[in-house]
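(Structure overview)
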Amino acid sequence: MASLVHELQTDIRRSDKSVTEILRTAKLISAKLGLSEISEWMESELSGYAVGQTIPSFRKIAGGTLQLLNPYHGWIPAGDMSELAIPIGQPVSELEELAKGKQICITPPRHIPVHSMDGIGDDLVSQFQQRIVNSPVKVKRILEAIKERILDWSIELEQRGILGENMSFDAEEKQSAKSQTFHIQNATGVFGNVSHSQVTIYDYSSIHQTLKQAGVPQDARNEIENIMDALKTAKPEEKKSLIERGKCWMVKNEEFLGASASIIRKAFGLE
């Protein structure tokens, strides 16, 4: 019998599996591992995002055509919306249905000011119902982004040896999973984007368990912990040299990392 994680990866690759089904399987895995943060994200994707809840950037749709409901002529075009990105909070099941249509219609989160047309006064135009018409391809991109994030998560679980044989996870797998850092918005390594001065630094504990299981000596673990601690308070001009030290550390400890090297490189922002 395939492990839970391998079954999830198989489902992601299959074209006949809906994103809703994939999310349900992923939610089961995260619940068994006791991962509350990613479980909450999956629940939001399945049930929809509540009013006031932060919606991930990949769920925003830009572009399309603004239309007004003229009482005499029906829906009429009123301009391009390329500068406006609208958050989409519906459940994944609804997005999958929208993706099947020829176009999608989105109600703007706020009224968009429009000047009068054809001699109609501004006051009257401002009362017209509005909608933004866009391509269903934009919704399909959201669905693919969700699948991509779940796939990345499952790959990291596999690389850590967290598989879920016989439909369950042992204590060691659960402990290892708790040190994993999951980035919903965008994949950002421990060292962030080295081309920018604003580097996002995550706590050393996010990779500590992986290093320990890989057999990395204590003095080497202390060294990389010191580098990460220094990065948190380093000035922009100091960060480049610290990141170079991190790269050198990777090379120096390559023999210990083995299959874990990919996880560490991701955590360092090196791939």
In short: Strands lie at 60-62, 65-70, 74-80, 85-87, 104-106, 130-134.
